[in-house]
Design a protein that fits this description.
Blueprint: E1 7-13, H1 14-19, E2 25-27, H2 38-53, E3 60-70, E4 73-78, H3 80-96, H4 114-121, E5 131-133, H5 139-148, H6 161-164, H7 170-191, H8 193-206, E6 207-214, H9 217-227, H10 232-248, H11 252-271, H12 276-287, H13 296-306, H14 309-326, H15 334-343, H16 349-361, H17 367-383, H18 388-403, H19 408-421, H20 424-433, H21 442-453, E7 468-472, H22 490-493, E8 503-507, H23 508-514, H24 519-527, H25 540-552, H26 561-584
Parallel strand pairs: 2-4, 2-5, 3-6
Antiparallel strand pairs: 1-6, 3-4, 7-8
Length: 588
């Protein structure tokens, strides 16, 4: 194949991307199903709003999409999540606001009305949807039923998190439609229909996508792999390094000193499994006086331009020493160690790591008090289901205050305002009282409780990976071994199986050993008295299960077995929640 004809990239607005297409977009069978949730949708929505409200920014770039042209249409190799999301958004706009721009200003050539929206959704203005899903035979009909043929998105109810975790994409389709319906409605309620017309016009004409049309699928996949290569993050660090070297000009001695410092920072990052671009992101949060931009290279261009280069390199070195403190927590007091360990699990790692590194770099006078406030803030946000976009402004405000050694009372006030206004304590209790199995916060929360409960220094940091499992004390499928769990009614107790009182930290090996066996054998496995001899389970919160069982086993076990089992789960849940309350300083 002629290399010049192997692919054709073009920069296209959303209007041209869909209306000027050489055919419908087809999501091929080998692609994974639609998976965007609220965090990705929040990111997209906030990016659109920020770009629209920024008078200095004419256009917004949504990334690249790789497609393969064929007689059937355009087979999507990369970009299916964005295309599907945009198509749902356009359907919501078209059906919900048919009157948009009905009173068109004839001088406005780039207007958007319901006809324009319809032409974006349907191929050549006919009834064939511009998007066809072939990931499974039934998914395209599900998409048409839930999205394309839906006449009233106001009737879509909020989708529970438990449903969003399922394989069935219909829940995610409806969740995305509900997301855009609610956000556009809120926009209209606050700013009116005329402003909505301007916002939609901006989205259609000023949001751009690089469409890369390939004419050979193997080449398209190869191009996709190159564009998405994991090494691309390091390119940001290389670009920043170039910025700094350029600032030295002809000062070769300064360049040599910088190169030595840079290599040392790289070694520190490598030793602690931190990418260089992550370290630079932590530093940019420490250094900036405003929220970071989309690209770290843009931030650093300004940082390098506005600072003396020798002082900047020294500050980077000091910041590296601050980050080292985080990974030397085992040498600190038990209280400080437990706080650092706990904060390392926070899903918004750039924020939590930047906050801790900033504190150590600035030599904050009350590290324990500060980290206690940070843990309370981040964990309540996490348990209550908040997204990065909802917490980032408050988080950044606290990082900025820490860098200036602001009084702890002011930093606490910043966090508490968010906690109270968003009613995080209420939402956290609602989450903890419900089914917690499968929640991302569960294992880190129990790890944090472990560190908190220990009376003496313990240097073990438990990685949040598959080496440790969450074990169901009463197994999820205990009814498959009814002889091991006599008298316990599955239907009556199944609502308790995924609650926190039935959860225990357990090594992966022991979890596999325990399976659905009865309590006697499970306790022997926890204690290391079984044939596998894998040792006593190392988690204090799980040891309490053993101790409670050994004590209660001597007591009268007469009566209803189901009720006894439920009472045990409820009692243990209360015990764990009391520990969490003490740790996060909350109360009902």
């Amino acid at each position: 194949m002629d290399e010049k004809k192997s692919f054709n990239p073009s920069n296209e607005s959303i209007r041209r991307f869909f209306m000027g297409s050489e055919g419908i977009f087809v999501i091929p069978r080998y692609q994974r199903q639609y998976s965007w949730g609220n965090e990705e949708l929040d990111d997209l929505w906030n990016d659109f709003l920020d770009a629209y409200r920024n008078p200095k920014q004419n256009d917004y770039f949504l990334g690249s999409v790789v497609v393969v042209a064929s007689n059937e249409g355009l087979s999507v190799v990369d970009g299916q999540q964005r295309i599907t999301t945009l198509m749902i958004m356009l359907n919501v706009l078209y059906k919900t606001y048919p009157e948009i721009n009905s009173r068109r200003d004839e001088r406005d050539h780039d207007y958007v009305n319901s006809t324009v929206l319809r032409n974006l959704i349907y191929y050549n203005g006919e009834d064939e949807s511009m998007l066809q899903l072939q990931t499974r035979p039934e998914y395209d009909s599900v998409f048409r039923r839930e999205i394309v043929n839906c006449e009233d998105y106001s009737k879509i109810e909020s989708v529970p998190k438990t449903l969003l975790k399922r394989e069935d994409p219909s829940h995610k389709f409806r969740n995305t439609a509900k997301f855009f319906y609610d956000n556009f409605k809120n926009f209209v309620d606050e700013y009116g229909m005329d402003e909505l017309a301007k916002f939609v016009k901006y989205i259609i004409y000023n949001i751009y996508i690089i469409k890369i049309v390939c004419y050979d699928e193997p080449f398209a996949i190869k191009l996709f792999l190159i564009l998405n290569d994991r090494g691309k993050d390091l390119a940001s660090a290389d670009i920043i390094k170039t910025y700094i070297l350029d600032k030295y000009g002809d000062n070769e001695n300064g360049k040599n000193i910088f190169e030595q410092n840079w290599r040392r920072i790289e070694e520190t990052c490598s030793e602690n499994d931190i990418k260089m671009d992550e370290f630079l992101a932590y530093y940019s949060y420490y250094k900036l006086s405003s929220l970071p931009r989309k690209q770290i290279t843009d931030d650093f261009y300004e940082i390098v331009k506005e600072n003396d280069v020798a002082a900047l390199v020294q500050e980077l070195s000091n910041f590296e020493n601050g980050m080292k403190e985080i990974f030397q927590a085992d040498k600190k007091s038990r209280e400080e160690m437990s706080l650092v360990y706990s904060l390392r699990y926070v899903p918004w790692s750039v924020h939590a790591m930047a906050a801790m590194t900033t504190a150590y770099t600035a030599k904050y006078p009350d590290i324990v008090g500060l980290f206690t406030a940070l843990r309370r803030f981040y964990y309540l946000c996490w348990i209550a289901g908040k997204t990065l976009n909802s917490i980032k402004q408050t988080s950044f405000n606290m990082i900025k205050m820490i860098s200036k050694n602001a009084p702890l009372s002011e930093i606490r006030e910043e966090a508490e305002d968010f906690i109270k206004n968003k009613m995080l304590i209420r939402d956290a209790y609602e989450a903890l009282d419900g089914e917690v199995y499968g929640e991302s916060f569960l294992k880190p929360l129990l790890f944090s409780l472990e560190y908190e409960l220990r009376s003496s220094l313990n240097t073990t940091f438990y990685l949040n990976n598959n080496s440790v499992h969450i074990d169901h004390i009463l197994p999820k499928q205990f009814n498959k071994r009814p002889e091991a769990w006599p008298g316990i009614d599955y239907e009556e107790i199944k609502g308790h199986l995924n609650t926190i009182g039935n959860m225990a930290l357990c090594s992966a090996v022991k979890n596999l050993e325990a399976l659905n066996y009865g309590m006697d054998r499970k306790i022997d496995i926890y204690r290391g008295n079984d044939k596998y001899k894998s040792g006593y389970i190392p988690f204090d919160t799980t040891i309490t299960v053993v101790e409670d069982y050994l004590i209660s086993n001597k007591e009268d076990e007469s009566g209803d077995a189901t009720q006894r089992a439920m009472d045990k789960i409820v009692s243990r849940g209360q015990y764990l929640i009391r520990g969490i309350e003490n740790m996060l300083k909350i109360a009902r």
